[in-house]
Design brief:
single chain, alpha+beta, Immunoglobulin-like, 1 helix, 9 strands, about 50% strand, globular, disordered N terminus
Length: about 120
């Protein structure tokens, strides 16, 4: 019982620390289903990243202008903790479902969304 209570108090302390540090990292894409050659709008929050760090939004669905560890990436602009970017899905991209993640400052933001590419 004491171990459970200590664990619960630890989680509350972590949540409070996260709230004090800023907004929870998140990532959204619009639209979530896009035709090949279509435009995708990317938005999110990377409040935990240091000022001046670039946010890399990573997906095999994206055009290979930039990359992270060999996977296509879009570099996102930051204003405070918020970031945004726009990219066009290549017309040659195979239809299917792709994951989209984000990272900055050497760390993964712990966010993942899915993007469906159709013909």
């Amino acid at each position: 019982m004491r171990r459970l209570l200590a664990s619960s108090l630890g989680l509350v302390a972590l949540a409070a620390a996260a709230d004090a540090a800023g907004s929870t990292p998140h990532l959204t894409i619009s639209p979530a289903v896009v035709a090949r050659g279509g435009t995708v709008h990317i938005r999110g929050n990377a409040d935990g990243c240091s000022r001046g760090n670039t946010v890399f939004v990573i997906s095999r669905a994206f055009v290979h202008t930039h990359d992270f560890a060999g996977v296509s990436a879009v570099l996102a602009r930051r204003a405070g903790g918020a970031f945004r970017a726009t990219t066009v899905i290549p017309r040659t991209r195979r239809p299917g479902q792709y994951t989209v993640t984000a990272r900055c400052g050497g760390g993964n933001l712990g966010v993942l969304v899915r993007l469906t590419v159709r013909r």
